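Researcher: Structure for this, please.
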Amino acid sequence: MKNSYKISLFSFWASVLIVLSATSCENELENNEITKDGQLSLRSSDSVLVLQQQFASNQLTFNWTPANNGGSGSSIDYLLEVDLQGNDFASPLAYDMGKNTFTFSYEHSTLNSILLSTFSAEHGKPLVLEARITATLANGNGEAQVDTASVVVTPYKPVSAELYMVGDATPNGWDIANATAMTPASEAGVFTYQGALSPGSFKLAVNQEDCWCQDFYTKDPSDSTVLIYNEGGSGDDLQWRITEGGQYLIAVDLIARTISIESFEGPAFSTLWIVGDATPSGWTVDTPEEMTQSPNDPFIFTYEAHLTPGEFKIFAGPLGDWCGEWFRPLENHQDITSDKVDQNAGCDVDNKWQITSETEGRYKISLNTLESTISIDPVNLYLIGDGGPNGWNIASPEPLTYSSGIYTFNGSLGAENATGEFKFSKFSGDWCDGEWINAATENQSLTNTNYIVTQGCDGPDNKWKLASGAAGNYEITFDLDAEVMTIERQ
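Model: Predicted structure, token format:
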């Protein structure tokens, strides 16, 4: 009996210990922060930190140890606050970290933005940030536990999100309000320009303010591939110089402070303008009308308009500079049927084309800058289709008359085909030889004068279609400058 009693007593206490052990494990699983002897301690990954934009993704990290819940089993909530040292956390940035979180990080770019905007810091000047971690028991018992850490941080001035080229080598010259914008890359501080530059110089501006007091980037006196940052326009005004006009690729990295300038094969100018009292532009080199560069051949530029008695020439920039780059005839008032053209700069030779009262009309000007040739051709308009007088005869379509900027057709529609179709061309000869004026939609009613312009055989080949009983005499007019068409039954 004695032995049996001892075994039973041993089994009883073993069972108690197993139950207590299970209860303790269960509490530990429910609360990972039970620490009877832990001391809350806050640390930062850096004590002194000079922020730099090239390391914008680096991090400043605050870590803290678990606080002490006195063995109560209560969970612990953590609050992280960040403020300038000396503010006594009067209006801090506060982050509720919840439970079981013991770290918090700022990316350098985010921290820099906070310093400049929230704390009104000055770039390049160090300041002291103070962080405070506060731990409180979720059951509301006990006093809050607190620890602090500080770090000396120096913020940087972020590089501009915009960049412009200004100078007589650039398309818009020294007109800072219209300075040529460079294209930003996905990477901060990286910009490119691809296009024409003329002989001359340029520098880089961060905006288009015409006070000339913005920040500029200029050339390093000892290394032309290095940028010098002139805040507020201060510093030496050294510029990059282009000695030969042509196509260039410029790449700038404001963070690395580097620039590369490379020429490549292509047209010397990517933008041309028409200037003269014979054209709608008039005599202005500030806001002239732009010619259209061919998407298929970048050396070819075209312009179409009604030309009145007067003179004109073709401007290659920079804007605002009368003695800049020009395309001009070989002799003054050269016959407009001649294909001769000269590219030159300056004001010494100032030949121009002339339009007289006899040659006034609508023209399409096509300039080939590679071959130095030009064509100045009258723009005709023709009606073509089985709904018109000449049918589908592209070699000899029905011409519209032209007077004072208006094209007019007066005649019969539907005589041969009561429900025929028609469209308009600016050419004759072959179906794919030039520009068409098509109806905006397929089988378009004569009451709808909306239209589209198509090239060659690219389509869509929409046409106007006479309804049954609509045959008769009509007047059709086009004002191509105003893009207005009328169709009226007579």
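Researcher: Any notable elements?
Model: The two ends are 133 Å apart (CA to CA). The longest helix spans residues 2-30.
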